[in-house]
Amino acid sequence: MDHNALALEMRGLREQVPGITDTAVAAADGLLIAADTADSIDQEGLAAVAAAGLGLARRTAELTSRGSLRRTVTYGSQGCAAFYAVGDTALMVVLGDEGLDVERLHAAARPALDRIEAILAAKTPEGV
Questions:
Q1: Sheet holding 32-36, edge to edge
Q2: pLDDT of residue 128
Q3: Whole-model pTM?
């Protein structure tokens, strides 16, 4: 996997959408793959909680016949956290402040998620 390409995608999304404060990519089992977060955020804890929440949301979508889960958003008094499925094996977390335009985020995230999925699926040659 190309960690530099992954970091560029996360940074590019932050630059494209004002209000994004932090981003992370994790495996569906909650293991952290990459993060661009403030030092005050427990990156591994964020990955684990995001995976658990996405798992519950994915199961809820299945039980209610709503199709494949795309995303879920949690709103707090100081901003929001958006959780996106990256295929069946990973997820992306985007944290934002109160000024984040969530609809703009969703529109910008779609192509970024496709590229992140391709990066995660790419095989690294032996010895690299």
A1: 32-36, 20-27, 90-96, 79-86, 71-76
A2: 46
A3: 0.89
